Give the backbone structure.
Amino acid sequence: MGAAGLMMDKSPENIPVIDTHIHLFDPTRPQGVPWPGKKDTILYHPALPDRYRQVTDGLGIVGAIEVEASPWLEDNQWVLDIAAKDTLIVGTVGDLEPGHPEFRGHLEQFHKNPLFLGIRCGNLWGRDLAAQVNQREFVADLKALADAGLEMDTVPDPALIEVVVRLTDRVPNLRVVIDHLPQLDPPSDGKARKALQNNLQELGKRPQVYVKVSSVLRYVDGKVPDTLDFYRARLDEIWEIFGED
């Protein structure tokens, strides 16, 4: 079939979708959950594959990648156990702490499961990526992660974008996935805004750095705008920097 025919077959409703960022948690477990908190009446309910199927019915989603929502080591296995029973979960981005003495052992343990794709690492759970990037053991552990063919998700702010530049200087083969970039508001200060733009342009030149189309929608005056034009400029900017892949 020619290219034109292929394009005709790929209308949006016929493209199978992998959702690359969902969280699984169950507040009814005896030990509870570290997130979300009990006061969050919207989120504080079991978030498991069956519920996900209900809320995404008809959207063409054929699989999902779970991203850690807990710093508890045992919750890496909890997610993998769910994935073993449900084909919806096609991968998980877990939580292991580089620089921790037991990191390599835990990495070897979970890497045996092909659904374990990497770790999320950033200013989460009281950790400070800007400080850690200067620690020899931390960098060495991320080199081990990269050598294993696994990736690192991170949730950025302008300072962390600069850290990702430094980190990928030190570990050039580390595949990094930047989460939620559409939500990142550029600083109002002109110098800081220019620095952020320069760092994003630099990361856009690095083929091992990716951006996830996640956390696009925003609240404005208590409402969520539902027109593409509201989001277009930001999405176009990210597209121009990072390209179609």
Residues 99 and 138 are 4 Å apart (CA to CA).
